[in-house]
From TrEMBL:
InterPro entries found in the cross-reference section: TPR-like_helical_dom_sf
Protein name: Transcriptional regulator
Taxonomic source organism: Streptomyces lydicus
Matches recorded under SUPFAM superfamilies: TPR-like
Taxonomy, superkingdom: Bacteria
């Protein structure tokens, strides 16, 4: 039970209330369809927003109390004459001023109270206080991993008694359970975008186990069964990615294989393409470039029926990464050209929800990695610099990733001082992000720069890098929940 002090503090926070006005504006469109409409409206007025179904869900749940200025301009363009309050948002001064900071402080204090962890996700997402709470208390405390627990509760309700090994699950699962799985995928991806994988991987395996337990329950409608299988498969890929980014390659391979098997069982081509996509990425990072090429080609075969040029573009990049690992410059260049051509075809409503990260920045960043693998450091640095400049601020982890790529490419191309300055920016970002992959990249840059330690910026970077390594980077993975 929470203490009286905690209950008193909770009463002073601003609770998240569903934004019913915005939900009415969405009408009969699905969240994904509405997000596509928002992106189209943004292009009409020259704005660039990375709106996806997750963002729409966060607005409608009340988690986002007021949009940033870019989204505000887009929404006003879509709904002329409506003010922010008309759309169900709080006035900007209510979330930007002193009152908002007071609420954030209360939330940070509540982050250490186990019974109140889920309140913290409701506070303004840009709060410096919450970021510090993440560092000191772990992501589960600061960002409300308790929000994932409904899946476990749903699984328990669907399969309440298993008295013997031959007794099948007798509970039922419906649309509510399918929604719980889908929401877990979105929440975990949001946490990963902000903070990287290491702090959340082990906690995320619990809802994954619960999701697969739901597949054993009694499901009366085929549409619900399809949603449960697709959701469980996407959750397996998401957890696999967390393992991948944490350097746990064997775990990642197992999760991706589980997702692929689920896709084959339910005949889900989109899930199959996603599983092969991530398998190709993992194979490249694990030093198996030929497997990366084969997996990327299998993904492209599965994706042909999905009418998504952007997906095919990303899969061509996965193939290019494999060819680069094989030192096949011709094969890599052909795949890169195909990726750029498909990317230029633009977004479609049929683009998978999980691809929200894939924009110009990601295209440039993955091209940088290919040129780096082929030994063309200067060309790689040009692409990496573009990737950093174009990255949406929401994707903190990717900003750190491509800045680390830039630092390594600059070091390899004979620009040690500029490399050191980029490395310093990565170290600052690693105060918010936990990623074994990024730290490994930065370690390589430090080794390359050691012969240049007599340069002032290089010396400062090497000293800070050593101190960061000695202290341990970021918060400790809290491990499985009790």
């Amino acid at each position: 039970m929470a203490s009286p002090t905690a209950r008193s503090a909770s009463s002073r926070t601003v609770p998240a209330r569903p934004n019913t006005a915005f939900r009415q504006l969405r009408g009969r469109l699905s969240p994904g369809e509405f997000a596509a409409a928002v992106r189209r409206a943004a292009r009409e007025i020259g704005e660039q927003v990375s709106c996806d179904a997750r963002y729409v869900g966060r607005v409608e749940s009340g988690e986002i109390r007021c949009p940033n200025y870019a989204y505000e301009r887009v929404f006003r363009h879509m709904f002329p004459g409506l003010t922010l309050p008309d759309m169900g948002f709080a006035p900007r001064e209510a979330v930007r001023g002193r009152g908002a900071r007071t609420a954030a402080v209360s939330a940070a204090r509540l982050a250490i109270e186990p019974d109140n962890r889920d309140t913290c996700i409701q506070i303004h997402e840009e709060s410096d206080v919450l970021r510090r709470a993440f560092i000191t208390g772990g992501p589960a405390a600061a960002l409300g991993f308790a929000a994932l627990h409904p899946i476990e509760a749903a699984a328990a309700a669907a399969s309440p008694h298993l008295p013997g090994p031959r007794t099948p699950a007798v509970g039922r699962a419906g649309a509510a359970e399918a929604t719980a799985v889908e929401q877990a995928v979105r929440r975990i991806r949001l946490l990963d975008d902000r903070h990287g994988a290491e702090g959340i991987y082990r906690r995320a395996t619990q809802p994954l186990r619960a999701a697969y337990e739901l597949l054993e329950s009694d499901v009366r409608h085929r549409s619900v069964s399809d949603r449960l299988h697709s959701g469980a498969g996407e959750l397996a890929i998401t957890v696999g990615w967390l393992a991948h980014d944490s350097g746990r390659f064997d775990d990642a391979r197992s999760h991706y294989a589980e997702a692929l098997a689920t896709a084959r069982v339910c005949g889900d081509a989109a899930l199959e393409a996603h599983a092969f996509c991530n398998t190709a990425f993992l194979a490249r990072d694990a030093g198996r470039p030929r497997e990366a090429v084969r997996a990327a080609q299998a993904a492209q075969q599965a994706a042909k029926q999905l009418a998504s040029p952007r997906l095919l573009s990303l899969l061509a990049l996965r193939e290019a990464g494999g060819w680069a690992g094989l030192a096949d410059r011709s094969g890599c260049e052909q795949a890169l050209a195909r990726a750029e051509r498909l990317f230029a075809a633009g977004c479609r409503d049929s683009d998978p929800e999980w691809m929200t990260f894939y924009g110009e920045a990601e295209l440039a960043g993955l091209e940088a990695q290919c040129w780096s693998a082929l030994g063309d450091a200067e060309r790689a640095a040009d692409h990496a610099r573009r990737a950093v400049a174009l990255q949406d601020p929401h994707f903190t982890r990717n900003i750190a990733l491509f800045t680390a790529e830039l630092a390594g490419d600059l070091a390899d191309s004979g620009a040690p001082e500029e490399a050191a300055m980029a490395g310093m920016r990565v170290l600052t970002l690693l105060e918010q992000v936990r990623s074994a992959r990024i730290r490994t990249m930065l370690d390589g840059t430090a080794r390359t720069l050691r012969p240049h330690r007599h340069h002032g910026p290089v010396a400062a970077f090497l000293e800070r890098h050593a101190a960061s390594a000695a202290a341990g980077a970021g918060p400790v993975d809290p491990g499985p929940a009790d």
